[in-house]
Design brief:
This protein is mainly alpha-helical. It is built from four helices and three strands; from the N terminus they run H-E-E-E-H-H-H. It has one domain. Helices cover 60% and strands 4% of the residues. The relative contact order is 0.19.
Length: 153
Amino acid sequence: MATTNRTTGPKTNLQKAAQAVGAVFLLVGILGFIPGITSNYDTLSFAGHDSEALLLGIFQVSVLHNIVHLLFGIAGILMSRTNGQARKYLLYGGVIYLVLWIYGLLVGHDTPANFVPVNNADNWLHLVLGIAMIALAILLSRDTNHARGATTH
């Protein structure tokens, strides 16, 4: 009988997706601290809109922004251990990114309220991440539920 609390055996696609998303966030968090991959590295500040450091020359980052990516990555990897946690990570993480997208659209980029900081590229990436994470949570949960229903009699 399949279970949603699987911590041993082969990972489900839902767990693999959460683990992969977590690994990408962890990598992004690390890359944000590497000069060359992050341009204008000498302007990297702890937080605030005045950080002009750009990950891959596109996405505005700060120490706080990088730490958030690292924590989000660790959470994804740890939560990928069970189906239920993997689903929650993808679903609620996606919701968080949609909220960040809206926040980024509403807050002025040159104001103290932009403390993470975010720029236009970050905003649109947050939209894509939010939609993708929620879609993974929903679509891959269906596969898990369908498989569980097929094996339970």
